[in-house]
Amino acid sequence: MTTILWFRQDLRLSDNPALCHAAANGPVIPVYIRDETDPLPLGGASLWWLHHSLVALRDDLGGMVFLSGDPLECLSRLAVETGAKAIVWNRTYEPHAVKRDKAIKAALKEKGLDVRSFKAGLLHEPWEVETGAGDPYKVFTPFWRAAREKPVGETLARPDAEVEIPKGIGDDLDDWALLPENPDWAAGWDDTWTPGEAGARKRFDAFLDDGLNGYAKLRDRPDQENVSRLSPHLHFGEISPRQIHNRVRFLADREPAVSRDADKFLAELGWREFSHHLL
Question: Which pTM does this prediction carry?
Answer without folding.
Answer: 0.96
